[in-house]
Amino acid sequence: MGVAVAFPDVLPAGYAWIEDEPEFDPDRHLALERPAELVMLADLGYTEEEITQKATPVAASTPFRLLTPEGAEIMLSVARRLREFARPAGDRIERMTRSGCYRSRWLRDLCISPDVTDHLTTIYGIEVAPHAMPVHLGHINYEPSTINEAIDKWHHDTLALDYVLTVTDPASVPGGRFEYFLGTKHEAAELAEQGETPPAERVVAPEFPAPGYAIALHGDMVVHRATPLTELVERITMVNGYMAMDPMLDDQSRTVDLIPVDDHACLWTEWAKFAAWRSHGRLSELLHELEFNPDREAVAHRLENAIADVQKAVDEMRGGEQRMLHYGG
Predict the structure, then answer these.
(1) What pTM, to 2 d.p., does this model score?
(2) Options 3.40.50.140, 1.10.3860.10, 2.60.120.620, 3.60.21.10; which CATH number does 26-250 get?
(3) What is the pLDDT of residue 327?
(4) Which among 74, 113, 193, 229 has the fewest CB atoms less than 10 Å away?
(5) What is the reported pLDDT for 1?
(6) Sign of the dihedral through C-alpha 51, 52, 56, 61
(7) N- to C-terminal Cα distance for the chain?
(8) HSE on the CB side for 312, CA within 13 Å?
(9) Which residues of the chain have pLDDT under 50?
(10) How many beta carbons lie within 10 A of that of residue 258, not counting itself?
């Protein structure tokens, strides 16, 4: 299993473990099955040039089983206990809980599980690790207070890779379907500029058989949403983030979007460690592979590129908040 940055041993200020949780047991709580099919980025219309430096050519999987019935019941219980920490994400989603892995040991252990990570590695076809920023681990979405708005508007994620897990039973939820666009994020942006959203004939709504099933996503490249409810009922999903272990690939992150969303007790330090990990890998490659070169500018460019993630993080941390990107309902 890949590990980029180890999960912290010390909780951030203001966090405490919830009590009376069962211990995570992969033998009892995991039921990892292979998805029947994979959709590729090329199927969505991305070019070979666009795909080359991305984490994986995989766009999405069909739903696959991740949790046993017992594991799904515990996941639902944990999500309900974490509901009190829910807050909005700008105007994109009304209720979500972030940083839940600093409150629930069971959720933490599921989200950093080596078994699940290895399973996602086989699906994506590359070595992955749980995301270096724990704010991206165990993100929980809840139903809104109205049926008039999409639960989560059309968007692509602020990180490269994740899975979306059904927590409540999909069969008991009227509406609230997970959907993704059979097109590129560039097309979604063009539609949004015209006041439009992805047309129904180019939208896929996967069927999730039961709670505890998930779909793997190339979140940064696949435009997706959760549709409005038709009745106000409990509807919960959990999203867990991953990253490619190759730091030479594109970053595919919009961490600046998280400034108005995530707790600053966690965000700045996690962001710094993530940027440091990527630049450390790029500097290591430079250290071992840079050959003698009389071209001053070429060498300076290589060095500049190696530290670009750190410099970008510094600039964005100091640059202030930005609106969380989405393409409407």
Answers:
(1) 0.96
(2) 2.60.120.620
(3) 86
(4) 193
(5) 59
(6) positive
(7) 37
(8) 18
(9) none
(10) 26
